[in-house]
Every structure is written in C-alpha cells, then in structure tokens.
Amino acid sequence: MLHRRGTILAAAAKLEVVQFLPETAAACIEAIDEERNLSQVVALVETDPALTANLLKCANSIYYTPFLGRAVGTVREALIRLGLVECKKLVIALGVVRTLRGRGYANWPPGFWEHSMAVAGMTIRLMQRRRGAGLDRHDLSRIYTASLLHDLGILVLVQVSPIGYREVVQQLGVRARVAVCDVEEEVLGVRHTEVGALVAMHWKLPPLFEHLLGDHHREAVDFNDLPLSALYLADQLSLRIAEDQAGPMLAPVPGHRTLPSNERALLAEELGRSNQIVSLVA
Ligand SMILES: [Fe+2]
Ligand SMILES: [Fe+2]
Question: Is this prediction's pTM over 0.90?
C-alpha cells in the first residue's frame, strides 16, 4: 500500500494535463473562432472542471508569468492573460497531449460535472446568503472556480490509477454509506483531497485552491472560514440530493449535519441548471 501511495503521489506531482471532454474543447474552439464575447467563452470553459484546471495551470506557468505576477484564480483572468487566440492553441495542444497519453475521461465518475457545477453555484449562493451583497465580485469568482475544481483530486486519481480507482467505485457500489475518502485510503493509500491539494500546489494555483481542494472533507470545518464552510455545506447537500440520481460515487457521507430544506431546494435548483448547461456541450 505504501508503495502504491508513493507511486500515485509521484505521478500526480508530475501531471501536466488533466484529461478533459473533447466536446467542451470543440465548443470552446468554435466560440473563439466565431469571435463570441469573453463571457460566453468563460461560461463554456466553466462547464468542464478539467479544462478549467488546465487553463489555470497554463496561465500560472512561468512561461505566462515571466515576472511572477499575481496568481490567476478565475477562468476570465486566465483567458485575459493567455489571450483568446493563444487559448485556442492551448486547448488544441492539450487535447493532443490527452489523446497521446491515454483514455481517462471515459472513466470519470457518473455525475461528476453536474456535481462540480452545482457545488460551485451553491457555494456562492450560500456565501451571499450569509454575508449579503458586501462580497467582492472578484473574490466570489475565484471561490466559484476553486469550488468548481474542489474534486480535481478524483480526476487525477482516475487518470494516474485508472484500475485502482475503478476498484474504489466498485467498493462504493457494494458498501452502504461509506465515505469516498475512506475507501480511497483503503484501496489506494491516498485521498482525493490530498492529491487535489498537491496538484494545486504544483500548478501554482492561488493558495485558496490548495485550501479548498485539500480541506473540503475535514470533519471539523471551521464555520468562520466562510469559503470552506460554504463549500463543505454545498458539497454535502449535493451528495445527499444526488444520492438517488447518480449512484454510489456521489453517495452522502454518514454523520454530517442536517441542513434546512430551503437550502436543499436551492441546491436542487443549481443541479437542474447544471444539467441543462452540461447538455448544451456534452
Ligand atoms: Fe470531495
Ligand atoms: Fe464533491
């Protein structure tokens, strides 16, 4: 097990591209070719957490930040820093790397996109409800993007250990109400939170990403930490609501707090919206 853990962490640390959906890439290239406005391209990229992660990584690479500028934490900033033409070239190049290096995205857990997008939307809604309108728009966009990527570690594990992660999914299917992180630990010796935080650090994403990706399954979440606690609640809500629809991968973790029904209704709305958006590009 220790050997497996070491191999997985070493592969994750060296990872250059997270495999993404060819449909999103094609839609994104088309939008740039048709000179659609920046917001439309941002919205398309944000339907795919993996493509979002890759573009953030590129925008934060030394090549694009020669003077070590501020770390980029939103898709809009990444597209502005890269430029849309460069972004199109990158999407094509990343797609070539993906094709050469393997399969991966076909093994994505069911409901992954919808879950990621619903959690991101709900995290922001929860933050606004708690803090009102006083939140900085830029901070919110950054938190939205980090929340969209909160389960990036799962994609990385699927990619670096496809057979091992298939076993995780199988185990989740036969064992009732068991936490994803616990099964990952048993089968692979490593949790998706640790792997996500490691990749965020290697890809030089803003510190918020390492925090949210690494800590969103912590048992004792500090409710004064607004972004983390909002993400935690949104994630748990999504897991509960998706239980019947998405199968074992998104099953809820036992022992978590019960939440008011109006917040469940809000998340159900987010899930519905995410499903609609995904169906546009997938
Ligand atoms: Fe997670
Ligand atoms: Fe999650």
Answer: no
